Write the structure tokens for this entry.
Amino acid sequence: MHPRLILAELEEHPLRQRLNNEFHARPSTALSGAVLVSHLVFKHAATTAEAERANLSKLCQGHVCNSIDSSDSHLMIETGAFRMRWELHTEFSTYTFYRELTPGETLHPDVTAFDAVHPEWLSGIPGKLMVATHVELRSTAEISPESVLAGLSPSGRALGGARVADDAAWVFTDFKIDNGFSRFLVLNDGMTQRQAGRTVQRLVEIETYRMMALLGLPVAKEVGAWLYTGEKKLAELMERIGEAKNPEDERSVLAALSALAADVENSVARTTFRFGASRAYHGLVAQRIEELRETRIPGLPTLYEFMQRRLLPAMKTCEAISRRQEELSARVARNSQLLRTRVDIELERQNQELLTQMNSRAKLQLRLQETVEGLSVVVLTYYGSQLVQYLTKGSKDLHHLNPDIVTAISIPVIAGLVAWGTRRMRRKLAAEETGGH
């Protein structure tokens, strides 16, 4: 039987096709010749996906659009004036515009690849602009690497660069923002169209993930100032624990520790995602730089060195603050547990004293009860003998017995019966109580 017919009889997992399509999603765009790439990144909320798609539909109202690739989180359209690639991510969306240049064309600093797009459409993009970068792709025949290096001034900006794609291209950048854009210059020295597209895509992703990773730094600085206060407060509470003289002092310190623990956990809950996202974005930056396969240009720092000197310290700060926050949370929890144990031991000691006092009172009540039981025997004997006497007097004409003698004889009998009945009832109650436990 043909394999396709065999597979048709098997039950397919509902996510199989979707997961396989995700593996092939967002391919790089093949680029040839001179190209200007303008890359915009908007940080948005999780609920703006529909608004973005609605805004994308408006883009094609003023242009003749050909959809090259489309999915729920990815769109590639082409018009006569530009090509646009849209990608939807968890925290942000990217809009990458491609515009072909004529060989030797000189670009004004304000020129973008989306000049043909109506400004109202750009202003309608949901979210806040996070990244704006230009990548200018030229051939070494148009712009020689030597001319770029010759134009560097010793007192000018710190320019970084490297040969990439197995020395098939040159990349230059300073990661500065001019006229609202950071800029990359890529000089093609033998790359294929797919190589050029992958190189440009890696560069814009490096810039995107670099900026997204840095979102954790302001949070780290804010939390760092609070952590200093929290650690100092914890040290003061530890001193108060050592100085506690009575249970009231211990309970007061425990309440303060519980309040501090709540503040720490609230801070952890607010910042865990941000620090985790920064760590993930930083990993993506390092991965994209590694994929460039850089070779050093004499006299210039590579992109990897740029990131090691500028981005890595910020990421280490976020990592250190996250670790300090977790350690503070663990220390507060540990000290709270120790103090709670101390308070519990004191409460157990007080409860034991109360139980001892209750036991003494119970023994006293038992003795009083036994005394009362003895008196009860005497009282019941007395009333019982009186009843016998009355019965004897009432019936003396029938049997001619002396009431006094009969009463005297009945007293020990009645006392014995009452004492025996009382003891039997006490034993029965004690047996029932023992059986109940």
Summary: The chain has three domains: 24-208, 216-352, 367-430. The radius of gyration is 45 Å.
